[in-house]
Amino acid sequence: MTDKERFVPTSDFVEELSKRPGGEGISKCVQCGICTASCMVANETDKYRPRKLIQKIILGKREEVLSSELPWLCMTCRMCEERCQEGVSIAEIFRAVRELAAEEGHIPDVFSDTVNLIAEDGWMLADSYTDFQEDDRLDLELDPNLGWNCEFSKKIKKRYIDGE
Amino acid sequence: MKELVIYVGCTTPVRLPSYERATKLVLEKLGVNLVDMKDANCCGTQFVESLSHKAFIAMSGRILALGEEYSRDILAICGACSGSLKMVKHELDNDAELRDELNELLAEEDLEYTGSSRVKHLLQVLNEDIGYEAIERAVVNPYSNLRLAAHYGCHVTRPFEIVQVDDPENPTIIDRIIEIIGAEQVNYTGKTRCCGGPLLAMDEGVATKIGIDKIRNIQNASADGLVTACQFCNIQLTQCQFGEGMEPEERIPVLTLPQLMGPALGIPMDDLGIWLNRIDSKPVFGTLQEAK
Ligand code: SF4
Ligand code: SF4
After folding, report:
1. What separation in Å is there between the alpha carbon of A77 and the centre of ligand 2?
2. Structure confidence at residue A8 (pLDDT)
3. pLDDT at residue number B292
């Protein structure tokens, strides 16, 4: 074993994630912590530390990471990515983690509820679009008929999310 | 004349229709022809994106294919939508398998993705298609003695390699337009930081703190108002000022860029939906030279 290999930590979980879209970059992380330092979520809450979460993945804590709400707290703002000297995208890695978690049934309610709404109506705010908003649009000379397509999203959910 | 098809997304038409209206009026004034995209669907951002990458590609991919039906480039005014559409376009253009799978789905509706329609965020249209000189020529009623802070929106400017809008570390498009219409642009700590909006679903408390942090930095720079280029950012940076710890008289008006530009370009105030702004925007509009 060369020195280089000895100091690059790895785990089955890293291998697994590296093969998924978004997860490719994880082995580039050198654990410098610039991401945590530039993250506004980490700035406002102690529970969220992107570097630490990457470390858990590197150490192979698969179940702990997949069942945690932490990967779902990333705002995908890519501030850390702009700063990371190693070209790691936390937003992309956590997206891959979320997708894997979802496949194994770990989905925060707000995500599954919203996806159900989108699938049913084709868009996110059908329930909030009331007469009041229609009136505002009319006052602004905007078309009150938003003309969303609700067939495609149903089909997509069946095929890719429900796996039918 | 530049021709575009506008994809307004889910949130703007319901929660911030004044942004849609002001965008249309301002672009029309500046010589852009817009048509509404009909029969569209949600781009899938964040929610669908997190659950299934393939479903996300399909949702945004269909919108890209609809753009091609109009034979026009797509204008997106939401940071999240423009980000999704550009990311998905980038993937589709670099992955034939993904493209084939999408086109198989779209064939049922006689749609096809070929990649011929580009996606542009509003800031790009103003900068690339219209240009600062043309905007300057169109100013008839400039602002004066007005200090404004720009907030660009994460998904509008990052990742640069894909979205190609403005320098992500030091963006300038909104600031230049602020100056062109007679106001003064002010810099502030954390200018390129997130508004907190994407975290609202998971943790409203933390999201609000992130928003307030930005507002405090803007207040510390003595700005009279804040200018956005995304309805999510606009709504979040308004909403967070109604939370605890912010006195009503401290609140600073939050305006979308086209709503700010409108009166300077001679568009009647009444047409721009200013009455729908939750925070009184008189301190901004009262500095128009004609208003004096
Ligand atoms: S900034 Fe980059 S290299 Fe450093 S810990 Fe974060 S992801 Fe790893
Ligand atoms: S992309 Fe996620 S981890 Fe990175 S700074 Fe933004 S919220 Fe934090």
Report:
1. 5
2. 60
3. 56
Q: Whose CA is nearest to atom 8 of ligand 2?
A: A39
10 Å Cβ neighbour count for B189? 12
Non-local CB neighbours of A89 within 8 Å, separated by 6+ positions: A22, A25, A78, A81, B159
Tokens representing residue B242 in the block: 């109604």
Q: How would residue B244 be classed by pLDDT, with cut points 50, 70 and 90? A: confident
Per-residue pLDDT, B1: 78
Ligand 2 atom index nearest CA of A78 = 1
Q: What is the pLDDT of residue A5?
A: 52
pLDDT along chain A (164 residues), means of 10: 55 93 93 97 98 96 97 97 96 97 97 96 95 96 96 96 86
Interface touch B210/A43, C-beta < 8 Å: yes
> Does ligand 2 lie within 6 Å of residue A76's CB atom?
yes
Nearest to B217, CA basis, from A31, A25, A40? A40
pTM of the model: 0.95
List the single residue in A76, A82, A124 with the smallest CB-CB distance to B198: A76
Nearest CA in chain B to A129: B14
ipTM exceeding 0.85, yes/no: yes
What residues have CB less than 8 Å from A29, skipping those under 6 apart? A54, A58, A86, A88
